UniProtKB/TrEMBL annotation:
Subcellular location: Cytoplasm
UniProt organism field: Pseudomonas kielensis
Residues within the DNA-binding region(s): 131-230
Domain Response regulatory: 8-121
UniProt KW keywords: Cytoplasm, DNA-binding, Phosphoprotein, Transcription, Transcription regulation, Two-component regulatory system
Modified residues (4-aspartylphosphate): 57
A Pfam cross-reference name: Trans_reg_C
GO molecular function annotations of the record: phosphorelay response regulator activity; transcription cis-regulatory region binding
This protein's name: Winged helix-turn-helix domain-containing protein
Principal subcellular localisation of the protein: cytoplasm
CDD domains cross-referenced by the UniProt entry: trans_reg_C
One GO CC term, this protein: cytosol
Length: 235
């Protein structure tokens, strides 16, 4: 076992065979896994177990995964990975809009899920090891404490939203394609269908008070990608 100490995972999955397989594999690679088979039991387990990552099925007895995702997100910014057999783009969008940080489609090979969890964990770097902040007019992005302030107002962002904003702001004035963003944030290539980047951009614009119809802070460069405008944050 490569005991890397990647922390606790709450696995909410009603397929006991699949849940057991995933739990065993992750435990062999440095994770401590708590298994829950019902949606209506998961929130209490989350509060008691205090996981570093939640892996969450959408179709659950007792309570839907989407509802549970929203409940967890209202309490914590713990990364949430949706595990689903649904391939409909709408389900992916609903999951991301409910606060999930990533999603994977069943059937998934455990090593692939492991790689996705490790990618999320790498973004959960201890504060003492992270330095740096970016400031553009009234916008302050502080990576050391993972805070974003706009005109001194604290803006609540999920882990993935913060990472996307940091990525865009670090490349201020440069257009990043969806492929650039997905590769650098999740290690996967854009397949022409993946809508997660668009969903996160939309959520960021809303939280940062950027006009969704005519955005000027995070601009769409048609046919190319997205551009963080460093001059749009003067208040």
């Amino acid at each position: 076992m490569d005991n890397l100490g990647f922390g606790k995972v709450l696995l909410v999955e009603d397929d006991e065979k699949l849940s057991g397989l995933i739990a065993y594999f992750l435990s062999q690679h440095g994770f401590e896994v708590r298994q829950v088979c019902r949606g209506d039991l998961a929130l209490a387990a989350f509060i008691e177990f205090k996981p570093k990552i939640v892996v969450l099925d959408l179709m659950l007895p007792g309570q839907s995964g989407l509802h549970l995702c929203r409940e967890i997100r209202s309490l914590s910014d713990t990364p949430i990975v949706i595990l689903t057999a649904k391939e409909d783009d709408l389900d992916h969008i609903l999951g991301l809009e409910s606060g999930a940080d990533d999603y994977v489609i069943k059937p998934i090979k455990p090593p692939v899920l492991l790689a996705r969890l490790r990618a999320l964990q790498r973004r959960q770097v201890p504060e003492s090891t992270v330095r740096g902040s970016l400031e553009f007019g009234g916008l302050l992005i502080d990576r050391s404490c993972r805070e974003v302030r706009l005109a001194d107002e604290l803006i609540e962002l999920t882990t993935m939203e913060f990472e996307l904003l940091w990525l865009l702001a670090s490349s201020a004035g440069k257009t990043l394609s969806r492929d650039d963003i997905l590769n650098r944030m999740r290690g996967i290539a854009f397949d022409g269908l993946n809508r997660s980047v668009d969903v996160y951009i939309s959520k960021l614009r809303a939280k940062l008070k950027d006009n969704p119809r005519e955005p000027v802070c995070i601009k769409t460069v048609w046919g190319k990608g997205y551009l963080f405008n460093p001059f749009a944050w003067e208040l």
